[in-house]
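Before going further, it is useful to explain how the protein records used in this thesis are read. An example of such a record is reproduced below.

***
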Amino acid sequence: MTAAPIVPRLVGPLVTLRRVTAADQAPLLAALHEPEVAEWWVGYTAKRVREEFLERPDITRVIEVEGQTAGALYVMRGDDAEYPTTVMHLFIATRWRGRQIGAEALALAIRHEFASGISRVTLDPNVKNEGVIRSYHRLGFQTVGVLRDYQLRPNGELDDGLLLDITRRDFPEGPPLPERRVTPAR
C-alpha cells in the first residue's frame, strides 16, 4: 500500500489551498450544480465528486475562503522530466465570484509548481467561456492556440477549447497575487 501523497497547504491573503476532505463533498457538489458552473463542469454526481476529488488527493485541492469550501482546483503534473508542465482546472461557486478568488488560487498553485521545478502551467477553457478567459489573461496567461472539437457538450455537439499557458520565464517567482485591501480593525 502506498502512502497518500503530501498535499501542500498553500495560504494567501484570502485563499487557502488544501487537501479535500469528506466534509467538502456536499459543498463541491452544490457548486458544481449551480447553472453558471454546471455549464462548463458537466454531469457531476455525488459519486463522481467522490471519485474525482476525494479519491484523487494527488491532483485535487479545495479552494477555501473564510473557512468555507469555495471551489476546487485540479493540479495535474506531468510525469516526464523532459516536459516539466502542469495542467490545471478550477471552478469557483458563484457566491465567491468577483473577488479574484480564482486568480489567487491559481497564483498560489503556480508559484508552488514553479518552485518545485515545473516550467509551464496550462489551462484549456471552453472558447465560449469568455469571462474566465479574460481573467486568465489578466493573471498573465498567454493564448497558445485553439483545441478544435475539444469538449463534448450535453447536446452532443463539440466545442473548441482555448489552450493558454504561463511560464516560469514570464514570472520567475510566479504570477503576483491579487491586491487585497486590508480593512483596519476598529
Q: What stands out?
A: The two ends are 53 Å apart (CA to CA).
